[in-house]
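Quick illustration, no need to memorize.
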Amino acid sequence: MQATMTGFLLLLLVMNSIMIFRLSDRKSTDIIKHLRNMAWGVAGIIVPEMVILLTKDRRIAYYAFTFYYIAFAWYGMMIFRFSVSYSGYQLFKVYKSPLFWITVIESGALICGMFSEQFFTITHVRWYNHIYWISRGFSIFYGYAIISGIALVGAIAILIIAATQSAKIYRLKYSGIAIILVMMAVSCVTSQIQHQPIWVQVVCFAFGEMVIVYMAVHYAPKKLNQRVMRFVADKLNDGIVLYDDEHQLQLVTAGYSDAVGFKGMQGISNEELYWSKVISEANVGNAWNGRVMSVARDDGAYYYEIQHMALNEDGKFIGIVYWIRNVTESIKSYGEMVHRANFDELTGIYNEAHFHEMARKLLEEHPDTDFVMTCSSIEKFRVFKELFGREKYNDYLIRTAEALRTGLVHIPNCVYGRIGESDFYIMMPKKVFDSQQLLDAIDEVAKVYSTNNFGLIIKAGVYEITEPSQDMLAICNKASMACDTIKGNYGKRILWFDESIQKESMRRERYNAELSKAIEHGEIQIYLQPQVDKEGKVIGAEALARWVHREDGLIPPAHFIPFFEMNGRITELDICIWRQACEKLKEWKEKGRDDLHISVNISAKDLYALDIYEHHVSLVKEYSIDARNLKLEITESAIINDLKQHVRLVEKLQEAGFEIEMDDFGSAYSSFNMLKDICVDVLKIDMKFLGDTENEDRSHAILKSIVDLSKELHMKTVAEGVETEEQLNFLKEVGCDIYQGYYFSKPMSVADFEAKYL
């Protein structure tokens, strides 16, 4: 019997050695390293046991038992280290582990004690009619047994804790090995209690080690991967169905019923036939094949992407897998994305790109039809937006778009859209276009947003498309040019495009390109319009910009200033005028005429593009002039957009010595309300105020009230645009302080002004 067991142990040793060799081929990780150490530990307990079985010499057997217990102690420590690493706990490095040093001490003690037999003794026992060596421990030996037991129990405890604290899907990874270790511990205790031969433990440990390696390296990772894959598949909204070669259902994910919209799994085994029928037109191969299918259900239309793949191994069919994905939301989202790409998000009508596309398509499909392009836009839409707010402004845009939908729905071959902030474009056949009808529609929308203090003005430009092959942007620009041309012209609301408009636009663009050089070469000059007091004495002048063009001669300001105000280059122009005014004030001061002032304009764009305070303070320092001689004119409409900020600006400028004039008082929309917040020094009243109404008496009464109010508020008044003696007499009568206008003089060159008044 001993020879048979020795041969069996030798077989286990060979198998263990092969396992060590196979583990050495694997990528070295902490777990593989610990498994190799455990395998060496098993070898360490097999060899002494083989000696014990073969020897009859008691001393040799005792030494073999000693080395067995030493190997068993190290094997226990290796099991503990493997459990720590396998469960992911980071305790100590090997050489820092308390268990390591305890094992070293135990090993040393056992070696020292094997000559005196202080730890245990050995004796023969008969077991199933065979004689075997067994050990019987003394009291000190139980300390060794307890420490070894603690290592094994600790390893089991660590694995159990890892299993209970980890997700359910990972429990097999730890619990399986914990069960094997429990079985090994039970066999060890049982064999000791029943005084069984030690080879029973060795066989149990050897087989247990092999099972642990199989579980840790092969079985658990494979099962874990399967569970993870199944878990992921079940969490997908997609449906996955797998059949074997006999069309028997093998796998169906939880997401299948959700994907296809069925409740429960009834009839699922027959679904393979259903999907086979659905995709019968596709060729089943080793690659994915499929299509999108539309299905009408009670709660609407649904779309499914159905794919399938035949599974083959070594050229033989082993099954088929179906992937059913609900793509309803994707298709609907795509439709919404296309809609957003083609339609204005706020109004729901065509955006610029799609309007151009559809208008071009219409021109190509109807080459024999004459079309017109119209552009409508708000006059001073930014003022409207500031006064009424974004919500009201958006409401206007939505209402206008709805009016277009309602009014144009019955007109064939008509497209419309919103381009830019407030521009609406319509292209329709010329024969159905009615300009009065367009104006009536505009008035219908405008009156909703008009109040006693504000009238919404909408202008329209019309272009007859004489060259359909033109770029659509060029066609729209011509309608837009006509619309922009009449902005500021209160007597005209609609204008047809003609070549003169284009020439004017080109001329503006030319001026825009030449502005910088014009400033550099001194073509931009100040003209002065005198300001006169009650005694008729000239006390100063307003500086106005004039462009003395090297080719076109003197260009009227109306031909370039409004354009520069729109494109923002008015700031460059204003800086040039301010600097020339300061140069002239310095020259007059040096001639002893520091009693004269010059008023300069600050546009709305300047307030945002420049630090007005720093700029003007620097100017008066640079030219060594008195700030009170450089008067600053700001319009109501310029400061109304950000009143709080501009109130502080006015206060700082006044503290620096500047006098602030409010230009065009009465032309904005809340003039009197502003006076309680902003303390200017001068109110400039345009005499057009008297000419804009047939009720002259009421105008006179209001103007007199303005003058009286200014006196109460300690402000001076300047009347500009004085053209008749009758106007002058009235202004003197109501107490106006300063006068300016053609009655005294038109704006004139600096040389003429100095010749006449200095």
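Confidence is low (pLDDT under 50) at residues 263-269, 277-288.
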